[in-house]
What does this fold into?
Amino acid sequence: MSRLQAEHLYKVFGRRPDQAVRKLEGGTHRDELRADGTTAAVIDASFTVEPGQIFVVMGLSGSGKSTLLRMLNGLLEPTAGRVLFDGQDLTALSPRDLRSVRSNKISMVFQHFALFPHRSVLENAAYGLEVQGVPRAEREARAAEALELTGLAGWEKSWPDELSGGMQQRVGLARALATDADLLLMDESFSALDPLIRRDMQDQLLELQKRLKKTIVFITHDLNEAMRLGDRIAVMRDGEIVQQGTAEDILVRPSNDYVASFIQDVDRSRVLTAGSIMEAPETGRSDEDLLAEAPATVTSETPIAELFTPFSTSGAAVAVTGEEGDVIGVVPRERLLAALGEEPQVEPQEDPRPDTQVPAPGDEAKKVIAGA
It folds into this structure.
């Protein structure tokens, strides 16, 4: 069963929202609704997130991604559609039951840290557990463990204003991890950080994910960040999801010119993997012969950027091995160069629509942390 499922979600702000949904379902463009004082923030969004997966929602400011995120934990009620969490329809829960789910099973990490300045680092990390009614000794132990996971051991007694921006964001991440929630929602969590610190936080998240296997929905406007973090990516524009797929799917097969414009500056060598460009081994050759000749062996998940060094010293094909060490494919130098030079295949589409801005909901950080 999917951990999280969104089914035909709509969110309309303004007058007669139900009528607006019917118009949108009938083909009316959202710009036509503005004359009636209505803003369609999210339009017919559907996707699934599997357990242990990082699902990234990417789009420009005003694309509807943050509004979509707030419907996933019930901060915003959908105008239409359903959100299923472990098979349970969150949109059908009473306010009390929804608060319980949000308090115990879903955690959120915000862009601007949302730390309490009058609480220590340890107290901030333990706040979600305090709201749950966890005894003090247990919540401090669990918070300390979460701080250690995020590289903040030794800073428990410090105050938030004594920490750098990156360290403050680590506290926010530790607070989410301390509750051991099944689902982690991250809303532009690294976008306020300097580039080097931002990449360090991405590394931290990927390392934690290897150990904890959390289910994560991550919101970003940065395609490189989306490509680096996402097991699957949804690209949003004007409230709609215009493409879903792996980073490789989006890079190699953009659904339209709008998506293609996003990926034009992406470093393909860091996204494409050996498994995506490998060829079948030559018939009749044993694994032993292929491995003996290959200048290096890699896995199917190895970025092709790591193949350049072996090819600088040898013209033989790099061997791609499976989990048992058997050769499942080879990457000749010619195939590597061809992959770097291939143009994305874009299907013909209508003229792109102009970008628009959608008013974002107010900051509800404390409400989410407290499970309100």
User: Anything to note?
Assistant: The chain has two domains: 49-269+357-369, 271-341. The longest strand covers residues 38-49. Confidence is low (pLDDT under 50) at residues 348-372. The CA atoms of residues 139 and 332 lie 54 Å apart.
